[in-house]
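User: Here's a protein and a ligand (cobalt (II) ion). What would the complex look like?
Assistant: Let me lay out the input and then the predicted complex.
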Amino acid sequence: MQSYERLLADNKVWAREKLAVDPEYFNRLVHVQNPEFLWIGCSDSRVPANEITGTQPGEIFVHRNIANMVVHTDLNLLSVLQYAVEVLKVKHIIVCGHYGCGGVKAAMTNHNFGIINKWIRNIKDVHRFHREEVDAITDEKQQLNRMIELNVQEQVLNLAKTSIIQKAWKERNVPHLHGWVYDLQDGLIKPIQEMQAGTHIDALYEFDDL
Ligand code: CO
């Protein structure tokens, strides 16, 4: 059996097991998608949103990219965000990074990665914003992990800078924003930031005509 064929075989087993426990399982999911959460996570295969939070299909709307970035020109992210906020009306948005993130690690080097340079340039900007704190850490691993936390915080702030979030805050006082970091070593998530709906950010970024 080819490796990819195992995925298809295991899918059959999974579907059968779901039905065995709950014959209505798929019927229910077919008709409605009503997740309370939007997850913005890293593409890293070791950080799957549903598994690590013990959630089921239907519970989390998911967007993943390298180093869980919220880039304000990223049409993909913005489309997911608008749909999640305006149509699904999620109550919480979680930006979840992870310690040991290869994307952040790459951004802290001077290597030329080709196309990826353009993506991780955004992470280098996070480094520059927090240069004093990050560069003062002498232990390389600790420095990387602190950058990973700061990157999550900046991405939460990037969400708050969007007109999509500001408009929802003004009209409905949701969603609340959360910054989390997952630890590959023990499987635990560390919440590092919370931004309640309506939080005022730097006035430079606030729209007055939403
Ligand atoms: Co990563």
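Summary: Residues 42, 44, 67, 98, 101-103 surround cobalt (II) ion (CB under 6 Å).
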